[in-house]
Write a structure and sequence with these properties.
Layout (H helix, E strand, L loop, with lengths): L1 E6 L2 E7 L8 H12 L6 H18 L10 H4 L5 H6 L12 E9 L4 E9 L9 E7 L8 H17 L2 E5 L24 H19 L2 E10 L21
Helix pairs in contact: 1-2
Length: 243
């Protein structure tokens, strides 16, 4: 879709925005929910299966203006592994190593959020591993830190034996708790920036629950937008109510 603000015969400001039309999405979502309703538990796996539909709804409502999602890739081959994980016995994701796509339901935002984890092959759950929380800069995504530079961070994590987790931070420009002109507030009760901070803390809690993590070796890394964050890790005074 192209919109132009014109004055007489001159274009003052053109805006181009992609529109994605997906046929049968509502029917696909309904059949997916019917199938998921027959399985108890496996909340993390179900979140990954529901994520494309949840993001589509968020885009349609204008809550998220990110057009990155390619539904044709998300709704078919990419979900086959997730469906296989719903078959008990066993623990979802147990034994999986390398670069992993994960999702969870973010209750405060009423959305399913993506995050990424890298688990080295040496991890067997027998001993605690160090953890690095990698936060992207402005405009990045949950994929940025682990995929940039040809996956160099993944190679280093494998070589030196540490787990890496990369949250989205609610939105690509969430700010991780920072409030300012680049990081606006949205109409949600917590506010855009507060939700960005909380998403990171939620993901940290999930990873510490899923894996044996050494509490004395949890590190934070990031760049650009991360340096301006105001939260438990950022400069300035912590947000109200935060330790």
């Amino acid at each position: 879709m192209r919109v132009e603000l014109r004055r007489e015969e001159q274009t003052a400001a053109p805006v181009v925005h992609p529109i994605v039309l997906v046929r049968g999405l509502d029917a696909k979502r309904q059949s997916t929910e019917e199938r998921l309703g027959k399985v108890s538990g496996f909340d993390a796996v179900k979140a990954s299966i529901r994520y494309p539909f949840d993001l589509a709804q968020s885009l349609n409502l204008g809550r998220n203006l990110d057009p990155r999602l390619r539904f044709h890739r998300r709704l078919s081959p990419g979900l086959n592994n997730c469906w296989r994980r719903l078959s008990p016995p066993g623990i979802p994701f147990e034994g999986e190593r390398g670069y992993l796509e994960r999702h969870y339901f973010f209750e405060e935002a009423a959305e399913i959020m993506p995050y990424r984890v890298y688990v080295p092959k040496a991890y067997d759950g027998g001993k605690a591993f160090p953890l690095i929380v990698a936060l992207h800069g402005l405009g990045g995504t949950e994929n940025t830190m682990l995929q940039q530079a040809n996956g160099e961070l993944q190679k280093l994590a494998e070589e030196h034996g540490y787990i890496v987790v990369a949250p989205l931070g609610y939105r690509r420009n969430g700010g991780y708790g920072r409030v300012g002109p680049v990081f606006p507030l949205d109409p949600t009760p917590r506010g855009w920036c507060g939700l960005s901070e909380q998403d990171v803390l939620n993901v940290l809690k999930i990873v510490r629950s899923d894996y044996q993590i050494d509490p004395a070796r949890i590190y934070l890394m990031g760049h650009s937008m991360v340096g301006m964050a105001r939260g438990p890790w950022g400069p300035g005074t912590p947000r109200s109510g935060r330790p």
